[in-house]
Write a structure and sequence with these properties.
This protein has 120 residues and is α+β, with helices and mostly antiparallel strands. 31% of the residues lie in helices and 24% in strands. A five-stranded mixed beta sheet has the order 3-4-2-1-5, with helices on one face.
Length: 120
Protein backbone atom coordinates (compact mmCIF):
# COMPACT_ATOMS: atom_id res chain seq x y z
CA UNK A 1 0.00 0.00 0.00
CA UNK A 2 2.99 2.35 0.13
CA UNK A 3 3.13 2.77 -3.61
CA UNK A 4 4.35 6.36 -4.28
CA UNK A 5 2.23 6.67 -7.43
CA UNK A 6 -1.03 5.98 -5.60
CA UNK A 7 -0.13 8.34 -2.75
CA UNK A 8 0.62 11.18 -5.16
CA UNK A 9 -2.66 10.57 -6.98
CA UNK A 10 -4.59 10.69 -3.73
CA UNK A 11 -2.99 14.01 -2.73
CA UNK A 12 -3.63 15.48 -6.17
CA UNK A 13 -7.40 15.66 -5.82
CA UNK A 14 -7.51 17.07 -2.28
CA UNK A 15 -8.77 20.66 -2.22
CA UNK A 16 -8.30 21.29 -5.94
CA UNK A 17 -11.13 22.69 -8.02
CA UNK A 18 -10.47 21.43 -11.58
CA UNK A 19 -12.27 24.40 -13.15
CA UNK A 20 -10.28 27.02 -11.24
CA UNK A 21 -6.98 25.18 -10.89
CA UNK A 22 -5.20 27.27 -13.52
CA UNK A 23 -6.59 30.56 -12.23
CA UNK A 24 -4.99 30.25 -8.82
CA UNK A 25 -1.47 30.24 -10.27
CA UNK A 26 -2.08 32.94 -12.87
CA UNK A 27 -3.91 35.43 -10.66
CA UNK A 28 -1.46 36.52 -7.99
CA UNK A 29 -2.42 40.21 -7.97
CA UNK A 30 -6.02 39.63 -6.89
CA UNK A 31 -7.31 42.15 -9.42
CA UNK A 32 -8.59 39.64 -11.97
CA UNK A 33 -5.63 40.04 -14.28
CA UNK A 34 -3.87 36.99 -15.59
CA UNK A 35 -0.17 37.41 -16.33
CA UNK A 36 -0.41 41.06 -17.34
CA UNK A 37 -2.58 40.48 -20.40
CA UNK A 38 -5.20 42.94 -21.59
CA UNK A 39 -8.36 41.07 -22.59
CA UNK A 40 -10.66 42.52 -25.24
CA UNK A 41 -14.00 40.75 -25.56
CA UNK A 42 -17.22 41.20 -27.49
CA UNK A 43 -20.66 40.53 -26.10
CA UNK A 44 -23.90 40.24 -28.03
CA UNK A 45 -26.69 42.55 -26.93
CA UNK A 46 -30.07 42.85 -28.71
CA UNK A 47 -30.17 41.79 -32.34
CA UNK A 48 -27.15 43.23 -34.15
CA UNK A 49 -25.99 45.36 -31.20
CA UNK A 50 -22.67 44.44 -29.60
CA UNK A 51 -20.59 45.56 -26.65
CA UNK A 52 -16.77 45.57 -26.55
CA UNK A 53 -15.12 45.21 -23.13
CA UNK A 54 -11.48 45.99 -22.34
CA UNK A 55 -10.15 44.63 -19.06
CA UNK A 56 -6.79 44.01 -17.44
CA UNK A 57 -5.43 47.51 -17.99
CA UNK A 58 -2.55 48.55 -15.73
CA UNK A 59 -3.79 50.27 -12.55
CA UNK A 60 -1.62 53.34 -13.16
CA UNK A 61 -3.72 54.22 -16.24
CA UNK A 62 -6.69 56.52 -15.81
CA UNK A 63 -9.57 54.49 -17.26
CA UNK A 64 -11.80 57.54 -17.66
CA UNK A 65 -9.21 59.41 -19.73
CA UNK A 66 -8.64 56.30 -21.85
CA UNK A 67 -12.40 55.94 -22.33
CA UNK A 68 -12.61 59.56 -23.45
CA UNK A 69 -9.93 58.91 -26.06
CA UNK A 70 -11.68 55.71 -27.21
CA UNK A 71 -15.00 57.53 -27.56
CA UNK A 72 -13.42 60.33 -29.59
CA UNK A 73 -11.38 58.11 -31.92
CA UNK A 74 -14.01 55.38 -32.46
CA UNK A 75 -17.05 57.70 -32.51
CA UNK A 76 -18.95 55.55 -30.01
CA UNK A 77 -20.32 55.78 -26.51
CA UNK A 78 -18.94 53.89 -23.55
CA UNK A 79 -18.60 53.62 -19.80
CA UNK A 80 -16.22 52.43 -17.09
CA UNK A 81 -17.60 49.67 -14.85
CA UNK A 82 -15.87 48.74 -11.60
CA UNK A 83 -16.02 45.03 -10.82
CA UNK A 84 -14.84 43.36 -7.60
CA UNK A 85 -12.97 40.58 -9.39
CA UNK A 86 -11.92 42.26 -12.64
CA UNK A 87 -11.19 45.81 -11.48
CA UNK A 88 -12.05 48.60 -13.92
CA UNK A 89 -13.59 47.39 -17.18
CA UNK A 90 -14.14 49.71 -20.14
CA UNK A 91 -17.31 49.03 -22.13
CA UNK A 92 -17.71 50.40 -25.65
CA UNK A 93 -20.80 50.26 -27.84
CA UNK A 94 -20.14 48.32 -31.03
CA UNK A 95 -17.43 45.95 -32.24
CA UNK A 96 -14.12 47.76 -31.66
CA UNK A 97 -11.85 44.81 -30.84
CA UNK A 98 -9.21 45.33 -33.52
CA UNK A 99 -9.36 49.12 -33.37
CA UNK A 100 -8.94 49.17 -29.59
CA UNK A 101 -5.96 46.80 -29.79
CA UNK A 102 -4.34 48.95 -32.48
CA UNK A 103 -5.00 52.08 -30.42
CA UNK A 104 -3.43 50.60 -27.28
CA UNK A 105 -0.36 49.49 -29.23
CA UNK A 106 0.05 52.77 -31.12
CA UNK A 107 -0.18 54.82 -27.91
CA UNK A 108 2.51 52.66 -26.27
CA UNK A 109 0.22 51.39 -23.50
CA UNK A 110 1.05 47.76 -24.29
CA UNK A 111 2.68 45.51 -26.87
CA UNK A 112 0.71 43.57 -29.45
CA UNK A 113 1.50 40.23 -27.82
CA UNK A 114 0.13 41.44 -24.45
CA UNK A 115 -3.40 41.80 -25.88
CA UNK A 116 -5.75 38.83 -26.13
CA UNK A 117 -8.83 39.24 -28.31
CA UNK A 118 -11.81 36.99 -27.57
CA UNK A 119 -15.10 36.38 -29.32
CA UNK A 120 -16.67 35.28 -32.59
Amino acid sequence: MNNPDIASLQRLGVGVDPLNAGLATEDSSGAGKSSGYIHIRIQQRNGRKTLTTVQGLPPELDAKRLLKAFRKVFACNGTVVTDEDLGEVIQLQGDHRMKSRDFLVSEGICKKDQVKIHGF
